[in-house]
Design a protein that fits this description.
The protein is mostly helical. It has a domain of 162 residues: Transferase(Phosphotransferase), domain 1, CATH 1.10.510. The chain contains nine helices and five strands, in the order H-E-E-E-E-E-H-H-H-H-H-H-H-H.
């Protein structure tokens, strides 16, 4: 978070454009780890003459909906990217939220029950459908960080907090929680069937399939929800919001 804060606070801000767990390296010790951002190949410097990589947006699993929508539009119609296809601080904040979700849940990537094609489909749905899906995913994380990740993973970029506001919220809400209890205690706040991932793996009845069944039921029974997604091993098929 401090790294993004530094980048976004420059006179000519720098937007990373490819935030994900693989691009965060941990230095220091187990007792005092230090996280550092790496891989600026898709970054943009907002100088008087903006400079950027020719491609906007990294891996779909960490990419903001507005970037994915522009990517899909370009693939459908061909030609250059739409005029609003650009990196923004809002897209970086979405990437931060997806990365935090990835690390907290200890998944190899966020939104684990979808393949890339199905996730692209979700991220091209109306904002309320995306927000409903995200709310169910965030039921998998402790209460202390849930509201902060909601403010990162808003489908509408205007609903996302700046990295500076996120830092303040983190210091006021999350840090005191971390100081007052250990991580396992915080994770124990997560209720079944959302308590399925790595640190609960040895608990009976805590399985990924239980959680996926719950998510599918939410999608099947909800109004205005995206239809049941394909699993990561399924082939692509047509579906609609």
């Amino acid at each position: 978070m401090a790294g993004l804060e530094f980048m976004h606070s420059r006179d000519n801000p720098v937007y990373h454009g490819d935030l994900k767990g693989n691009n965060v390296l941990i230095f220091g010790t187990l007792e005092a780890p230090v996280a550092k951002l790496t891989d600026f190949g898709l970054s943009k410097i907002c100088a008087p003459m903006p400079t950027a990589a020719t491609r906007v947006g990294g891996n779909t699993f960490w990419t903001a909906p507005e970037i994915v929508q522009n990517k899909v539009q370009r693939s459908l119609w061909g030609g250059p990217p739409p005029k609003d296809s650009k990196l923004t601080w809002e897209a970086d904040v979405w990437g931060f939220g997806a990365t935090a979700f990835e690390l907290i849940t200890q998944w190899r990537f966020p939104f684990k029950d979808m393949n890339e094609s199905r996730l692209e489909h979700l991220l091209c749905c109306p904002s309320d459908i995306i927000d409903n899906e995200i709310a169910d995913y965030l039921a998998c994380v402790p209460h202390a960080v849930r509201s902060i990740l909601h403010s990162c993973l808003s489908a509408d970029p205007a609903g996302r907090s700046t990295i500076f506001d996120l830092r303040k919220q983190w210091n006021e809400i999350v840090t005191p929680e971390f100081q007052s209890q250990d991580w396992k205690s915080l994770m124990d706040e997560v209720e079944a069937p959302q308590r399925f991932y790595h640190c609960f793996r040895k608990e009976p009845g805590r399985s990924f399939e239980d959680w996926r069944t719950w998510m599918e039921s939410r999608r099947d029974n909800g109004i205005g929800r995206v239809q049941r997604p394909l699993s990561t091993s399924d082939s692509d098929s047509e579906s609609s919001c």
